[in-house]
Specification:
The protein has 259 residues and is mainly α. The chain contains twelve helices and three strands. The chain has one domain: Orthogonal Bundle (Triger factor/SurA peptide-binding fold), CATH 1.10.4030. Helix 2 crosses helix 4 and helix 6 packs across helix 9.
Length: 259
């Protein structure tokens, strides 16, 4: 009576073993083939450090972007084509300024979206390179951006950074400066009046005094800022790592470059 029971158990075990084998084969077939090691090739350099300012790196991509954005600088047309040395000087100056802005003050310096849009609109109307290409129109502005390999987002970010730095300079250096009445009168008689041809009507002093005061105030701010930035360059640890750009180090330390 035991033989039939043993036969049935052996058959059941055989069926289970066959099912397990089939399942293993199915799983093996479903697994992806082992990934083959990629063929050796030359390393691809995605970016590189061209300079270090107080332990903060300036990358080659930063330099490339700065050279493209230089067309937006107010003095870009008068200065002529941008060079790598000029772009590097400006990047280093900006890096030094940013390092002086306290983290708790950074948010208050940020311009609003409306301020950025307003200044970009002014730029499209007033920038010499833009005027020539009729950037006031959307079609002209799109063509200008395409020619200079720029995007609207890059222009907005450029303006945001520029306005933040200008606001920092105004807050730090403009407060406490007073322009005397004597200085306004001296500028009026010695600088403004000689610019008018003989016989041409000259505006009275009281009419132009506020504008003269603004000009003299900005001159004072620029002088204080230039001295301060020159000290930052001399005291900072600036290292140019790109051999082709090492010549930029000395002009920067002597006070070259702009914001």
């Amino acid at each position: 009576m035991n033989a039939p029971r043993t036969f049935r158990s052996s058959a059941a075990l055989g069926s289970v073993a066959a099912a397990c084998l089939a399942l293993c084969l199915a799983l093996c077939l479903a697994l992806p083939a082992p990934a083959q090691a990629p063929a050796p090739s030359s390393p691809v350099v995605l970016d590189r450090v061209v300079a270090v300012v107080n332990n903060q790196a300036i990358l080659a991509s930063d330099l490339d972007n700065e050279m493209r954005l230089s067309v937006l600088e107010p003095s870009g047309a008068a200065r002529g084509p941008e060079t790598q040395l000029e772009a590097l000087q400006r990047l280093i100056s900006r890096q030094l300024i940013r390092q002086q802005i306290r983290e708790e003050d950074a948010q208050s310096l940020e311009p609003t979206a409306d301020e950025i849009a307003s200044r970009v609109a002014d730029l499209r109307k007033e920038l010499p390179a833009c005027v020539r290409q009729n950037c006031a129109t959307d079609a002209g502005w799109s063509a200008f951006l395409a020619v200079h390999d720029l995007t609207q987002a890059q222009v907005d970010d450029y303006m945001r950074r520029r306005l933040a730095i200008l606001r920092f300079i105004e807050i730090r250096f403009r407060q406490g400066i007073r322009i005397s009445r004597e200085a306004i009168e001296a500028y009026y008689h010695n600088t403004l009046l000689p610019q008018y041809p003989a016989g041409q009507p000259v505006p009275p002093l009281e009419q132009v005094a506020p504008r003269i005061e603004e000009i003299l105030l900005q001159q004072e701010v620029n002088a204080l800022f230039s001295d301060w930035l020159d000290k930052l360059r001399k005291q900072g640890d600036i290292e140019v790592l790109d051999p082709a750009l090492e010549a930029a180090a000395q002009p920067i330390r002597r006070g070259g470059g702009s914001r």
